[in-house]
Amino acid sequence: MRSFALGLIISAVSVPCFAQTILKSEPLALAPYEVVFVQDASCTAGKVLKVTGSIRGLHRRKICVSLAAEQASLATATP
Fold it and tell me: Where does the signal sequence lie (predicted)?
């Protein structure tokens, strides 16, 4: 019974961590291999731009991906 209750508590705490924040603009500084999602006009309707940071001297990787509505929340980027 204790392990079942502990499992419920852990799953209730970890579920909100799966949500991704969607920014309105691409951040200027991005750590290597850090991933952010950006809502802009470069992707078609229903898709967001997935930007992956890179090490110095290389270009960032940008790909249009679709996200489920339950996985994302809209937020504003701080310049």
Answer: 1-19
Interatomic CA distance for residues 50 and 70, integer angstroms: 17
Q: How far apart are CA 39 and CA 47, in angstroms?
A: 8
Summarize pLDDT for 19-69 with one digit per residue, the tens: 578 889 999 999 999 999 999 888 888 889 999 999 988 999 999 998 765
Instruction: Retrieve residue 51's tokens.
Output: 């930007």
Beginning with the edge strand found earlier in the chain, give each strand of the sheet holding 35-38 in spatial order.
Answer: 61-66, 47-52, 35-38, 20-23, 72-74
One-character DSSP codes across 35-70: EEEE--TTS-TTEEEEEE---TTSPPEEEEEE--GG
One-letter identity of residue 54: S
